[in-house]
What does this fold into?
Amino acid sequence: MLPLMLKAVSEKKIKLEKVIELMCINPAKRFNIFPNKGLIKRGSDADIVILDMNKKWTVDRNTLVSKGKNCAHLYFGEKIKGSINKTIVNGNVVYDGKKFYKNRNMNNFVSPIKKN
It folds into this structure.
């Protein structure tokens, strides 16, 4: 989903700040795990995606990593500008643009914050 949102950013259909709101902040709020998740600030988990907004690539069945490959076929051949360079979870690199890394700290369950 993020690459398609980056495509929309490159086509000036949506601002990157709105993508952050829709894909990070709002889901964290919805699942009551904000501000531990959803933004970068002191006290929040160190989860971040580093992007290359200029890299161009084509969605390809053989290189796409997704649990939704049955839906992704709609986008095979789609040209995208904007790519994920690195993903960091709990301060640990779990994806470096080429390879995924399993880390024992990345599967920590985040409990919803109890409201009074």
Summary: The longest strand covers residues 48-58. The two ends are 34 Å apart (CA to CA). The chain has one domain: 2-95.
